[in-house]
Write a structure and sequence with these properties.
heterodimer; A: mainly alpha; ABC transporter involved in vitamin B12 uptake, BtuC; two-stranded antiparallel sheet; 15 helices; 2% strand; B: alpha/beta; Rossmann fold; 6-stranded parallel β-sheet; 6-stranded mixed β-sheet
Chain lengths: 336, 345
């Protein structure tokens, strides 16, 4: 049996072609898809360079620590949103779910349940919203956008009802330790966020469930044909999203020293922005965990740098918006 | 995908050299020393509430103008909006690591800046709390030392509004209260002050309109429809007061229903002059900002500040509205600045 021979023109390597380490970088950098794929890490490094030149404070250990602590909540929410978006869904109720978790923590703390039990109440409260989302979408066949828009309102109302519209001040030494304690420059919030990110990465890329999440987002028909229980996967991702929102609630209460019933929509918008920056396709099927984490760091670094430079509050949302729109444009060039 | 080794290698090939370059540049830039004192003797940072509200814009103007007059180096940052508690904390955390000698703080809630302030206090930097007080228990837990609190007696401001409405309508008349965000300390104090002063009046409804004009407009429209014999509204801020004025206009009840609010923003003063709002209790955020900056100067000069400084308030009705507009943003009534003596020492 003869071996097939390759036909077509053979390429000769030019004598002056770059080689070694530089060649792959230059070769890839010529392709728009490379910039699209690596938008978040390249953008983050670019920001670090610019801000470190413009502000002597930006890369001081104190500021790096402050930035990482500030990014922790957004990282957790971005990881949560990544699971949902990978299935082709979206969780618009995530910040309201976090608020419900925060109020749950506050009420449990007020009732004298202590730090650990109050934390569990926070996660459990959030999981209720996640379960409602999952059932509405997977079993009730309600569009994710409409379902989570509805639960956003429901969760907002519940938070106000249970707290009587009043912030619950939490003076806790454990929470103070959680928010101000650190190992070197790494505050406990960012350590917790990174652990969550690592676990999420493992679940998404090293388990059968993760494979099912990606399959459900790619083509539900094909996924079902291959034995994936798509409705169950959808319920699971909304539960994961809500559970992580509950963990974020704990970090939020620690950060602001109170369980506040008013929702902060900035977290919702920014976590979706971080996911987009991280290269996750909003149409689903394409999973990323590290990307959204870097996206969250990029958005935090951007706000921090602009603050250090004394840029007016009016211009800061504009800058964030431009970065997100640019990232969204770049996703057109990603390799499918 | 980030999960594949090839992508990781591609990412690292780009990120590592660029990261090394960033650190190299940072090493160069960190050599630049920054002078901790401006011409006035103190480098000041201010973190205030959202600049989407004219009250806090006037406060910012007060800080800036006082800094320009006295030659003080000041950096002002604000929250994205009145609910952005964590965002405001992030801004303070970013500024806390810089070489500011004094921090002017206007927190969204009693606790949201406590964690960042503990860092400021530990570094031995002065903290001047303006407008909204920091929760004293939370401050004690975090070992935060507040140099002084500068702000309006919100209960007294609400009381002035209550006294005025009580003088304008018959005893037992139906009135409604529109507060800010449910549970907000400032709103609660103003409402409590109003209730205490308006004891003879019947409060038919109290609702929260999140400090927003359009929310207050909707709420007031509904209240007027449900209570056609309503005689007056009290709003915890001017923006909501102007929303109520619009609802009264829409119901063709202008002149019949008394509307009084708190703040003394320019558009509210103009509304009073035009016969829209009946009155506003002017708070002078400009003066609060100015006093905050001056307090930092007093600290820089090594003087001791009083624990609390009450900023002025005044009831602005149609007869004094023109004068108030002419003097805006300064107080139109004379007030004794307790820091003047300390600044001239």
């Amino acid at each position: 049996m003869s071996t097939p021979t390759k036909t077509g023109p053979t390429r000769t390597k030019p004598a002056d072609a770059p080689h070694g380490v530089v060649a792959p970088i230059i070769g890839q950098a010529r392709q728009v898809s490379f910039w699209a794929e690596q938008a978040a890490p390249i953008g983050l490094v670019g920001l670090v360079i610019v801000f470190s030149i413009l502000s002597p404070t930006f890369l001081t250990l104190g500021n790096i620590r402050a930035m990482l602590v500030a990014a922790a909540i957004l990282i957790v929410l971005s990881v949560a949103q990544s699971f949902v978006i990978t299935t082709g869904g979206i969780d618009l109720s995530i910040s309201a779910t976090m608020t419900v978790g925060a109020v749950g923590f506050g009420l449990a703390w007020q009732a004298g349940l202590g730090f650990v039990l109050s934390g569990l109440v926070a996660v459990a409260s959030a999981l209720v919203i996640g379960l409602i989302n999952g059932l509405l979408i997977a079993r009730g066949k309600v569009t994710d956008f409409i379902a989570t828009l509805g639960t956003l309102s429901v969760a907002t109302g519940l938070a106000l009802i249970f707290s009587d519209g009043k912030p619950i001040t939490v003076n806790s030494s454990e929470l103070l330790t959680l928010t101000s304690g650190s190992i070197g420059i790494f505050g406990y919030p960012i350590i917790l966020a990174v652990i969550i990110g690592a676990l999420a990465w493992f679940v998404m890329f090293r388990t059968r469930f993760g494979l099912h999440v990606q399959a459900a987002g790619g083509s539900e028909e094909s996924a079902v044909a291959n034995g994936v229980n798509a409705p169950r996967v959808r319920i699971a991702v909304y539960l994961i999203s809500a559970g992580l929102a509950g963990v974020a609630a704990l970090l939020l209460v620690a950060r602001v020293g109170a369980a506040e019933p008013a929702i902060n929509t900035a977290f919702l918008l920014n976590c979706i922005a971080a996911v987009v920056l991280g290269g996750v396709s909003l149409t689903g099927g394409k999973a990323r965990i590290v990307g959204p984490i870097i996206g969250a760091l990029l958005l935090t670094a951007l706000t921090n740098g602009l603050t250090l430079l004394g840029v007016s509050q009016f211009y800061q949302p504009l800058a964030v918006g431009l970065v997100v729109v640019l990232a969204a444009l770049l996703t057109r060039f990603q390799k499918k | 995908m980030f999960s594949t080794d090839a992508t990781w290698q591609r990412t690292l090939r780009v990120a590592v050299p660029l990261g090394a370059l960033a650190l190299l540049l940072a090493g160069c830039s960190n050599g630049a020393s920054s002078d901790a004192t401006g011409a006035g003797g103190a480098k000041v940072a201010a973190v205030i509430k959202g600049l989407d509200n004219p009250f806090f814009q006037a406060m910012e103007d007060g800080i800036n103008d006082a800094a320009d007059t006295d030659g003080v180096d000041v950096s002002i940052q604000a929250a994205a909006d009145v609910g952005d508690t964590s965002g405001q904390a992030d801004k303070l955390s970013a500024l806390a690591g810089q070489d500011f000698g004094c921090f002017i703080i206007n927190p969204i809630s009693g606790t949201n800046l406590v964690q960042a302030l503990s860092q400021v206090s530990t570094a031995g930097k002065a903290i001047v709390n303006i407008d909204s007080p920091i929760d004293p228990d939370a401050a004690q837990t975090a070992n935060i030392d507040i140099a002084t609190y500068i702000g309006t007696d919100n209960e007294a401001a609400g009381g002035k509004a209550g006294d005025f409405i009580a003088s304008q309508v018959p005893a037992g008349s139906k009135v409604a209260i529109i507060g800010g965000i449910a549970g907000d300390v400032t709103s609660a104090a103003r409402v409590d002050g109003f209730r205490a002063a308006a004891g003879d009046l019947t409060v038919v409804q109290e609702t929260a309109a999140d400090w927003k004009r359009e929310v207050a407009l909707t709420a007031a429209t509904d209240i007027i429809a449900a209570n056609p014999d309503i005689t007056a509204f009290f709003a915890a801020n001017d923006d909501m007061g102007l929303g109520i004025v619009k609802a009264v206009e829409n119901a063709q009840r202008t002149g019949e229903i008394v509307v009084v609010s708190v703040d003394g923003n320019k558009d509210a003063l103009e509304s009073v002059a035009a016969g829209g709002l009946t009155a506003t209790v002017a708070q002078y955020p400009y003066a609060i900002g100015e006093l905050g900056l001056q307090a930092c100067e007093v600290v820089a000069a090594g003087q001791t500040l009083p624990d609390q400084i009450e900023s002025p308030t005044a009831l602005v009705t149609t007869d004094v509205a023109a004068d108030a507009i002419a003097k805006f943003p300064q107080p139109f009534e004379a007030f004794e600045n307790p820091l003047t003596a300390l600044l001239t020492k």
